[in-house]
Amino acid sequence: MLAPPPGAVLFAAPSGIDEDLVSPGVLGLLVVVALGLALVFLIRSMNKQISRIQAPREADLDQAEWDRRQANARAARESAGGSGDAVKGEEGPRD
After folding, report:
1. Which among 11, 18, 70, 90 counts the fewest CB atoms within 10 Å?
2. Can you give the pTM of this predicted structure?
């Protein structure tokens, strides 16, 4: 068998069919509708999942930062031989 020449169409339409009149038909419509429905349900599910996310409040972040600094200061005092008691006059963040 001979190889087809470069640029040849391997799957040519039969000569009796007009390519301008061919449409995807009912099967194509059903596939597009199914993809659209899947997209709608995926977007709804994504919105539910995003609404369940609880972002930390600013006050919680400030408190965590203050706690971390206090723990670091306490560790530094203890490693330097200090008593580990809180420094007089230090207070936490205020809400």
Report:
1. 11
2. 0.43
